[in-house]
C-alpha cells in the first residue's frame, strides 16, 4: 500500500520499505517547487533580474561553499569508521575544496549554523543528509528554469544542470538510515536544509 504525502499530495511507500534517497526528495519536493517560484529565480528565468540582486544571490552561494568545505575537512578527520562514510566525507571535501580554492572568498551566512549544529550534535550520517539538499535542489532548479543562451544567467544554468548526486548519497543513506526513527530525523534535517536553500533564493529578491 502507499501513503499520501500531506504537503506534496504524492504517493509514497511506508517508511520501512522505501529508498531513503528518494523518500527524502519526494517528502520535501514542495519546498523545491516553492523555491523554483521565488521572485529571484523567476526574474532570472525572464532575464531581467537586476545585477545587484544576482550578486547577492551568488555571494550567499559562494559563502556556503567556503564554510561547508571547512566543515567537510573537519568531518573527514573526525569520521574514521565506517570506511565508506569516511570515504564519502573525503570525496566531498576534495570536490568542494577544488572548486573553492579556484573561485571563492569568505562571506557569512546565518544558516550555516545549522550545518555546524548537525556536525557537532548528530551522528556523521546526518551531516551527509544535510549536504544533500544543496546537491539535489540546485541540479533540479537548473533543469526546471527555462533559460536560453541569450539569458544573462545561462552560464549559471549550465554549470548547475548536470550532476549525479545519487552516485554519492544514495547507497550510503540507504545503508545507514534503516529505522523509522532514523528516517524521521533524516527527513526533519533534510527539510530544515531545504528551507535554508529556499531562503537563500527568497532573500536574494524580496
TrEMBL record:
GO cellular component, as recorded: cytosol
Segments crossing the lipid bilayer: none
Stated name of the protein: Thiaminase I, tandem duplicate 1 2
Amino acid at each position: 500500500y502507499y501513503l499520501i504525502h500531506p504537503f506534496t499530495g504524492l504517493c509514497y511507500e511506508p517508511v520501512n520499505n522505501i529508498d531513503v534517497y528518494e523518500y527524502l526528495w519526494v517528502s520535501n519536493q514542495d519546498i523545491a517547487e516553492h523555491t523554483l517560484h521565488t521572485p529571484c529565480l523567476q526574474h532570472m528565468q525572464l532575464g531581467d533580474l537586476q545585477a545587484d540582486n544576482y550578486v547577492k544571490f551568488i555571494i550567499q552561494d559562494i559563502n556556503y561553499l567556503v564554510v561547508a568545505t571547512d566543515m567537510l575537512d573537519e568531518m573527514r578527520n573526525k569520521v574514521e569508521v565506517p570506511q565508506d562514510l569516511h570515504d564519502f566525507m573525503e570525496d566531498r571535501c576534495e570536490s568542494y575544496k577544488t572548486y573553492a580554492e579556484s573561485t571563492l572568498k569568505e562571506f557569512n551566512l546565518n544558516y550555516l549554523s545549522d550545518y555546524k549544529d548537525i556536525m557537532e550534535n548528530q551522528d556523521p550520517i546526518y551531516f551527509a543528509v544535510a549536504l544533500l539538499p544543496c546537491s539535489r535542489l540546485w541540479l533540479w532548479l537548473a533543469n526546471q528554469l527555462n533559460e536560453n543562451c541569450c539569458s544573462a544567467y545561462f552560464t549559471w544554468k549550465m554549470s548547475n544542470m548536470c550532476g549525479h548526486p545519487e552516485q554519492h548519497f544514495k547507497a550510503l543513506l540507504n545503508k545507514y538510515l534503516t529505522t523509522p526513527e532514523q528516517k524521521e530525523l533524516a527527513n526533519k534535517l533534510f527539510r530544515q536544509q531545504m528551507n535554508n536553500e529556499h531562503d537563500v533564493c527568497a532573500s536574494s529578491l524580496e
